[in-house]
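$ fold --in a.seq
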Amino acid sequence: MNGRDMYALAERLYPICRSITGYGLRQTLEIMAGAVPLEIEGVASGTRVFDWQVPDEWRLDAAYIQTPDGERIADVDRHSLHLMSYSLPGRRTLTLPELLPHLYSLPQHPEWIPYRTSYYEPDWGFCLPHQRLCALVDGTYEAVIEGDLSPGELNYGELLIPGRSDREVLFFSHACHPSLANDNLAGLVTTCALAQRLLSMSTRRYSYRFVWAPGTIGSIVWLARNQARLREIKGGLVAVLLGDKGQLQYKPSRNGDSEIDAAAAYVCGRRGGRVREFEPYGYDERQFASPGIALPVGRLTRTPNGEYAEYHTSADDLSLILPEQLEASLDALSEFVDVLEHNRRYVNLQPYCEPQLGKRGLYRKGGGEALPDRNIAMLWALNQSDGKTPLLDIAERSQIPFSVLRDVAAELESSHLLEGRGDAEEGSDS
């Protein structure tokens, strides 16, 4: 998929009324399954997952408010944000003063609809533009929510793309927000496109696992169900908010000192982005960072949650995400994968002075005193390959692009001047 393809998939998913359970979530995963061969898993309501419990399934058929003159407003058929997610079903007749405590708006943005939820505290409510709320008149209103809240299941999508190693790199994106383009869909379509790229690779060093699940409860469910395999997880990224105009931003994992952190920070920096400080708040990275899990899983975004005005409102629509930004985010994720795939430690097999590159056909003449960049890259690779220094460390110290060092290291290995000694983490297998 390119940027236009990702945007088209987002357009298809945008109208769906998603939540942490229910038909909208399943429909979203089924559409994505048409692009990548994900498996849709189900976990029954009431299942204990650490300190949490899988909630009842929320099924919505219709929801609207009928005004005293018979007009339907806050109708989910017009915009899925009009209903507070997980609102209790029922048909209620109320006066305006009785209705107002159940209405949510944004006075500072009177034309926008806010996004509100009530997953774990039984309640009901509607969201509407503040200018429409201010225009309501006294009289009798009907608040109609047709649906059901009863035992069912929570669903998530999962895809494992095997590599030569059983060690896995994890990509996680939340799949529960209704009609929010950047906060939800941008992450879904970008990771879907990344999975397609990985599937097309002829060989992979690591295995790659993708999980598309409801926020918070979805990652908790997945972690609870997969405790026995967590030791196989090398690390990974929560990939969200990747379609807006902002620059890339990386939030490190809990300890911030893993190869995953180094690779993501390198890619982010090369593309004009920045590395943030860790904090135990945000998206699902905070579940992976809990002390009992402590996996090196960071978060890659453009403008982070809560730092753009349109966040969690109807203004986070398809106009906020751009095909070129989606494609640039995909390229950054692909570069991250490339660094992990090739970030090996090498040992110089000719460590006593410089080896003669010319007789091996590796030396290229430059003009005047300047050496071609490729030759400089070879000298750096040879000089720093002590069996302990990863290729990424050499790239950062030399300011030579990792892709250049990757290629010259392969040439030097073919010429028996370097020998790979495993991946970047001490004691790891190649």
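$ fold --in b.seq
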Amino acid sequence: MPALSAQLFSDAAVGESESEAVQRTALALARSQRTALSHRWIDRFLQQYGLHTAEGVALLTLAEAYLRIPDGATAARLIAEKLSDGNWRSHRGASDSWRVNG
């Protein structure tokens, strides 16, 4: 068995340039897939919670203000206040994306 393992490892060895090419290809594929998935998810999210809804306005307000919040307690109050606006349950199950419905 050890001889077979050694032979398999030897056969599988690739040069540095081949290894780099495989890594570049894998990275490009992963980035492409992430981009494709994120755009679809964001599009669905924006369609579901557009600015024509109270929930969309609450999310936009929260997003704009959140970065300027000085501390955790104030951030928690802002989140609680903004998420209490609107009828969030009316959106449950309205999208085919689990991320949007969550």
